[in-house]
């Protein structure tokens, strides 16, 4: 892993200057909630491992005895305003009203509230006013670029298979912000890698102003399970369906789990699966003579109840190294004493 050269094209320099000006503008105007806020975000356009990392952190905080609320934009939902997706007892809204990732998190995290709203400060205030008991702490999903809300801990995740995203902003690279934005982060996690690789990433990021720790975060897949709850038999023939930023990772994981993939259907990230997409899946299922359709957990929440086919999901968990939890707990303890 080597540090990319500094972008010199007029577009890259202009785009970088716009991002820097935006940060300075919000630095004087961002709002603060009266509870600690942990932000989990990335510099990439999708596919960095944010959602499983958010779930892991929320689960850890809950296990510490804290009342946790996740604040999410609810990307792709058809409604504006603030909505409570879950008070901790599972999703109360579907993906059309809440977005796919909030519904996924609400289903995976009993005891954790999930609130959506484009204005995450308003969503946090709504949670404090309406939830009983009120949250002790907030986890800001996909929050690194959401500068209008102050955060107490800013975490940035990087995918191990493409950590630097070409080192450039679009269209020449795959970054949503310049690498220099990493100076705002308190810590970085390299998702899908071991400790030496994470340490190497930290060294590469130092010239860009990053002075925090870098942690490894493994990914672990659980046995695929059908909608009815039973496990999908190893060796089954499957049709793989994915509407995520990096479907090749999902396909590789299915193969590594010992399943025979006869066909792969991919769609754009956050695809809503309209009727024509469902028909495409049904046709591919019949033509492939497979045992089941296997999909991601994020896509499963959108396909559930809409396909009259055997449907399985492949759960993925993020497993940050122990040193990360030690670091996080130490950072939080003073804030817990003085919320």
Number of helices: 10
- Identify the CATH architecture of the largest domain: 3-Layer(aba) Sandwich
Share of residues in helices: 25-40%
CATH class of the largest domain: Alpha Beta
User: Remind me, CATH topology of the largest domain?
Assistant: Rossmann fold
Which residues sit in consecutive blocks of at least 5 with pLDDT less than 50?
A: 335-339
Overall average residue pLDDT:
90
Structural class: alpha/beta
Anisotropy-based shape: globular
- The side-by-side strand order for the widest beta sheet comes to 3-4-2-5-1-6-7-8-14
Biggest beta sheet attributes: 9 strands, mixed
The string of secondary-structure elements, in order, is HEHEEHHEHEEEHEEEHEHEHEEH
**Rg over alpha carbons:** 20 Å
Give the CA-CA distance, first to last residue. 40 Å
Q: Care to give the gist of this entry?
A:
The chain is of the alpha/beta class.
Note down, in words, how this protein is organized:
With 339 residues, the protein is of the alpha/beta class. It has two domains: 10-66 and 136-219 and 319-337, Rossmann fold, CATH 3.40.50; 223-314, Rossmann fold (3-Layer(aba) Sandwich). 34% of the residues lie in helices and 21% in strands. It has helices spanning 10-27, 50-63, 95-98, 100-108, 120-130, 195-205, 247-256, 275-288, 297-303, 322-337; strands at 37-41, 68-72, 83-86, 113-116, 137-141, 153-159, 187-191, 214-221, 225-226, 237-242, 260-266, 292-296, 311-314, 316-320. A nine-stranded mixed β-sheet has the order 3-4-2-5-1-6-7-8-14, sandwiched between helices. The chain has a five-stranded mixed β-sheet with strand order 9-13-12-10-11, with helices on both faces. Helix 4 crosses helix 9 (297-303). It is globular and about 55 Å long. The chain starts with 9 loop residues before the first helix and ends with a helix.
């Amino acid at each position: 892993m080597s540090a990319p050269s500094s972008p010199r094209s007029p577009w890259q320099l202009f785009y970088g200057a716009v991002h820097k000006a935006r940060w300075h503008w919000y630095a004087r105007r961002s709002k603060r909630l009266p509870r600690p806020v942990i932000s989990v975000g990335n510099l990439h356009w999708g596919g960095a491992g944010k959602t499983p990392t958010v779930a892991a952190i929320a689960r850890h905080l809950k296990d510490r005895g804290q009342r946790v609320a996740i604040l999410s934009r609810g990307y792709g939902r058809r409604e504006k305003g603030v909505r409570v997706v879950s008070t901790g007892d599972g999703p109360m809204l579907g993906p059309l009203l809440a977005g796919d990732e909030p519904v996924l998190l609400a289903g995976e995290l009993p005891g954790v509230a999930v609130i959506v709203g484009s204005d995450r400060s308003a969503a946090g205030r709504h949670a404090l006013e309406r939830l009983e008991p009120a949250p002790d702490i907030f986890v800001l999903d996909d929050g690194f670029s959401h500068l209008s809300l102050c955060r107490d801990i800013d975490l940035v995740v990087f995918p191990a298979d493409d950590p630097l995203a070409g080192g450039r902003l679009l269209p020449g690279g795959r970054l949503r912000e310049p690498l220099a934005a990493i100076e705002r982060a308190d810590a970085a996690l390299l998702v899908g890698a071991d400790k030496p690789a994470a340490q190497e990433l930290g060294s590469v990021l130092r010239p860009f102003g990053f002075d925090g720790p870098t942690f490894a975060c493994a990914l672990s897949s659980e046995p695929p399970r059908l909608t009815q709850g039973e496990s999908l038999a190893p060796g089954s023939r499957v049709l793989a369906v994915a509407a995520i930023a990096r479907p090749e990772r999902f396909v590789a994981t299915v193969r590594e789990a010992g399943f025979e993939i006869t066909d792969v259907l991919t769609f754009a990230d956050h695809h809503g699966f309209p009727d024509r997409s469902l028909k495409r899946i049904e046709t591919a299922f019949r033509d492939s003579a497979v045992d089941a359709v296997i999909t991601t957990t994020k896509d499963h929440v959108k396909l559930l109840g809409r396909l009259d086919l055997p449907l399985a999901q492949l759960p993925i968990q993020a497993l940050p190294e122990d040193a990360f939890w030690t670091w996080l707990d130490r950072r939080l303890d003073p804030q817990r004493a003085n919320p």
